[in-house]
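Thread: sanity check for a docking pose with zinc ion

Original post by kr_44:
Hi all, I'm comparing my docking run against an independent structure prediction. Below are the sequence and the ligand SMILES. Could someone generate the full complex and paste the structure tokens? I mainly care about where the ligand ends up relative to the chain.
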Amino acid sequence: MIVDLQNISRSPRQFDLTFQPDWWREGSGDIQIGGLEGPLGVKLTVSRDGERFIMNGRLGGQLRLVCDRCLETYAFSLSHDFRLSLALPESWESIEDETELKIEDLGVGFISTTKIDLDDIIREQIYLALPIKALCENTCAGLCSRCGVNLNQEPCRCSGNSGHPAFLKLKELPIR
Ligand SMILES: [Zn+2]
Ligand SMILES: [Zn+2]
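Reply from moderator J.T.:
Ran it for you. Here is the predicted complex with zinc ion included:
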């Protein structure tokens, strides 16, 4: 969805959007995201502050993520707030004069045109909201590094007689 910031004034403009699961297009870097589990709700407020455009947003919904340990997909509840400050490069100088701060210290994002694509911004925010480690459960047992079975679903097939000979003796000890 394209929004022209040119039409945004000081009084905030509200957007209340819902993205259906088919909105998610697979990108090249999507090793972690398997898509949307259900509709994604997006609330946005956009206003102008001098030469800057301020965007406040809230994302809510469920993503399908790939577990880092067992590689199965699972539902992840996404709840993410963000705030962006955007400006055209030609207005950076006047912003710095006005605020007496460097543009980089203001955290102003670069836009090349006032016509911005909300889909791109929301997509980027989804990536920023991802957990550092995606786990289906904190207790996920993962995959066996030898036979590759999902240890959450079945016992490992190679735990019998394999292993380094030095450790085989240990296996004979009674387990208390
Ligand atoms: Zn897992
Ligand atoms: Zn195994």
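Residues 2-140 form one domain. Hope that helps with the comparison, let us know if your pose agrees.
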